[in-house]
Write a structure and sequence with these properties.
mainly alpha
């Protein structure tokens, strides 16, 4: 298997754990979950970045640093909206709504980077989005306020577009550690200040909750998001977001295995369509070698 495909697949599988870990840590408010996730990830990655990429970090152009910080701002909005949505709707619906990003990324990439879409990519996007709609429709009435939860998840999808597009631009010229230390670090500061501003405490939760928060920082964030960001060096942002559409399939399977949320027929049928669309989009894609 092509190395780039393999690492992106690892990233998608890893981020699929996010919704489940968040559900298991729901004792904590959504802003606390988001803040702790990014703070822990930053505390791990920033020292590593300084140890291995200090020279590059010290010579980054001011514009690059600013874009990296803005990317973190979009990431903080993404997590704030999406994690909040999980309190109002099902895991499947939330993840599906937040992974509508290929549509927005494809449009933005065409105008910003002049990245043309191939026919297989377009067909793959359409098929995958249809699968996502089927999953969302089948779960639309689950949760205390599914419409509000869906809107929050959609806002999270729009925010992640900015994060991915900036990442696509910066990853062409700087190392992974330099980029994610800027993005994760600024997102952590924004989310931490937001949680404190709303009067939330970062302490006083159960040991199980802190365990899930640590796993949330390590698996979906450090492994998942970092793998996705690395992939942006070699693939278009549109192609990467098509792959991320595999997240609701993984999240639904994990929700069944860990949370006991059994998939219904719409989730199974929609998942098959999503995987088919991803296969079509990637089947004839040419990935440059390192």
């Amino acid at each position: 298997m092509n190395r780039q495909y393999f690492i992106l697949a690892i990233g998608v599988i890893s981020v699929s754990f996010a919704a489940v870990f968040i559900r298991l840590a729901e004792e904590a408010p959504f802003l606390v979950i988001a803040a702790v996730r990014l703070c822990l990830a930053s505390l791990i990655i920033i020292p590593v970045a300084w140890a291995r990429s200090a020279r590059e970090l010290g010579h980054l152009p001011r514009k690059t640093v600013l874009l990296g910080l803005i990317s973190g701002g979009f990431l903080s909005l993404h997590f704030g909206f999406w994690i909040a949505s999980l309190s109002y709707t099902s895991v499947a619906t939330s993840v599906v709504m937040v992974t509508t990003t290929p549509i927005f990324v494809a449009i933005a990439s065409y105008f910003l980077f002049h990245e043309k879409l191939t026919r297989p990519t377009v067909v793959g996007i359409v098929i995958s989005i249809i699968g996502a709609i089927i999953i969302g429709y089948g779960n639309w009435k689950l949760g205390p306020s599914p419409l509000f939860g869906g809107v929050l998840a959609l806002l999270g999808a729009l925010a992640v577009v900015g994060y991915l597009l900036i990442g696509r631009r910066l990853m062409r010229g700087i190392g992974l550690l330099s980029y994610i230390s800027l993005a994760y670090g600024s997102a952590a500061v924004i989310l931490l200040l937001s949680a404190l501003a709303f009067g939330y405490s970062l302490v006083g939760y159960s040991s199980d909750t802190y365990l899930w928060l640590v796993l949330l920082a390590v698996v979906p964030q450090l492994i998942g998001h970092s793998s996705v960001n690395w992939s942006l060096r070699f693939m278009s942002a549109t192609l990467v977001t098509v792959a991320i559409l595999g997240e609701p399939v993984g999240a639904t399977a994990l929700a069944f295995l860990i949370l006991g949320e059994a998939p219904n027929l719409s989730e199974i049928g929609g998942g098959i369509l999503i995987l088919t669309g991803i296969f079509i989009a990637f089947r004839k894609s040419e990935i440059p070698q390192e």
